[in-house]
Amino acid sequence: MSAHSPEESRSVDDSADRGRERDWVRELRPGRSVDESFVVRSKELRQRRGGGPYLAAVLGDRTGEVAALAWENVDHLSSILDVGSVVQVRGQIQRYNQRLQVVIRSAEPCDAASVDETVFVRSAERHPDELWRDLEGLIRDVEDPNLRQLLFRVFCDPDVEPRFRIAPAARSMHHAYRSGLLEHTVSMATLARRIAEHYEVDRDMVVAGALLHDLGKVWELEIGSSIEYTDDGRLLGHLPMEVLYVDRMIGELSTFPDELRRQLLHLLLAHHGEYEYGSPRRPKTPEALLVHVVDMLDSRMAGMFEAISGHGDSDEAWSPFSRILDRHVYRRRPPTEGNGNDGY
After folding, report:
1. Considering the entire predicted model, what is its pTM?
2. Domain spanning 128-304: which CATH class is it, in words?
3. Fold for domain 6-116?
4. Any residues with CB less than 8 A from the CB of 291 and at least 6 apart, and which?
5. Confidence category of residue 131, pLDDT binned at 50, 70, 90
């Protein structure tokens, strides 16, 4: 990241000092000017068709993201807009190809000590303590003593518990917010248990697999004003890290059956489902297939709800393009009686 002197930095709290409400991303409208702090999600130097560089960036806060462009002072602005940093941006909002974008006139770094990280990365709607109690309840309900002991050891590990409570489930695709991993895991394990009962497959294996399937995210991602990959996350990925960790924990349990170990590790290795999704193995047991399908379902439904309630004009029928679903989403709800909602 570029170094800047204290004189060049300003506090995120300046908006309060100026006596006005924050301009959240989801409330930006074309034709207005903006003078607000945003986290830099990404940036890229590009070439104009007629020659010369311009800067394309994505800015965000906890309500969403907006594209940003800089046509002038490109090198200077590129040195300020470090990915993951919070910057004060002044510019003009416009609509181009049905998308909002900010044309940046000037920007300066914000004082990191004054940044309120919760402004830029939102949290799960439910409190993590409440979600954690649900997770503990799911573990207590596991009847197999070997799996139950393993799960308690994993989630009581001081290297896991504090990380798991706040970790996101992804950088941007689904549950990409504080405690998103915990929310996704509890939701998925709860649903997977019900489906396991319906199909009469091994419920304990399914619940254990659902609880552990994304464990490696606690080492793959780090969260502050933005969600970024760690060095281990980029070099190894969450799936190998969690399999190595779980296998090591199993090795500390002298009575853990070999066949149980084999099937649980297979389930973790196969939970992405297909080779093209980065899965080293495809599901070869009913329990592994069920966990994969429920993982897909929970992440896609989260993407659907995100698209319906996310940024964009609240009265528009169609959402902005959803990357995880690879489509626009129709936001209006069916006008059935009793749902208390006659459309977005």
Report:
1. 0.78
2. mainly alpha
3. OB fold (Dihydrolipoamide Acetyltransferase, E2P) (2.40.50)
4. 192, 206, 209, 210, 213, 267, 271, 283
5. very high
